Amino acid sequence: MKLYLITACIVLLINTQAYSQSQSYRDKVIKITSLTVSEEAKQMMIEKAIDNYSWMKSKETYSFWDEFTYEMRKVSIVELAEITIPVYYKYLSEKELDTFIDGINLPRSKLGLEHKMLLQKLSSISKKFNEEMHDAGIVWGNNKAESLVQKIEQRKSNSIGQSHAKQSISDKHSFREQVYTFVDEMPQFPGGEENMMSYLGENIKYPFVAQQAGIEGLVVVAFDITTMGDIVNSEIIKSLGAGTDEEAIRVVKRMPKWIPGKHKGKVVPVRYTLPIRFSIIE
Description:
The chain has helices at about 25-35, 40-50, 60-70, 75-90, 95-105, 115-160, 165-170, 170-180, 195-205, 210-215, 245-255, and strands spanning about 5-10, 215-225, 230-240, 260-265, 265-270, 270-280. A hairpin with a 2-residue loop joins strand 4 and strand 5. It is flat, with a radius of gyration of 22 Å. It folds into two domains: about 35-165, no CATH class; about 180-280, 2-Layer Sandwich (TolA/TonB C-terminal domain), CATH 3.30.2420. Helix 1 (about 25-35) crosses helix 4, helix 2 (about 40-50) packs across helix 6 and helix 4 (about 75-90) crosses helix 6. It is an alpha+beta fold. The strands form two sheets. A four-stranded antiparallel beta sheet has the order 1-6-2-3, with helices on one face. Strands 4-5 form a two-stranded antiparallel sheet.
């Protein structure tokens, strides 16, 4: 019997996963993506990623938002393909990619035995495959948006000179500069850390895909705790995938109001980082 253990951690542990695809493997995934992902589907992915950052509209200037959305929409099909390579690599061999490409434009009546066997395999793994593709898309969207925000902000800082950089940096980071990281009294979950551990254990549901794939590790969520104790601006800063990121965000957003932090006797907003460990115990 397996027990699925979910705990909050104080120490951030970084677990990177390496892939060793050949260049030819990567080229074939890019070709498959270019043949199977329509321009409309590509734009839908990008618009979803943009929508995740719609909160910036109220904090940024119109020119910043216009530039951000413009740059996001310039993403090429090759860049989208790059994020799916680890998922393809997990399920399909390079030979199967060749079969995939060969059969894309063939009518069903012309498919050979290899094509039919590949179709059967894809059908059997479709649920896990599609969910992992979805997770990869979410991670890509967050990473892409963050890199663009930093790029635009850096360009703005350079254009106005170092002396005015702090005043003109985008409101996202201006806002975060006003949010403390270290304070005299850190915010607290109602009842303290032990209650928070209990809350997480009782409310997080270990995603089925992650269970079946044996995926374990840390998801790290960062969020701001306002002076009223509300949780805002939650985001994944260390992803695990297979539905664990979304589950961590869901439970964090449903947390009760926290006891806000204080600095020099004054209640202040604080940026809080919460690592959550997903572990399978045999």
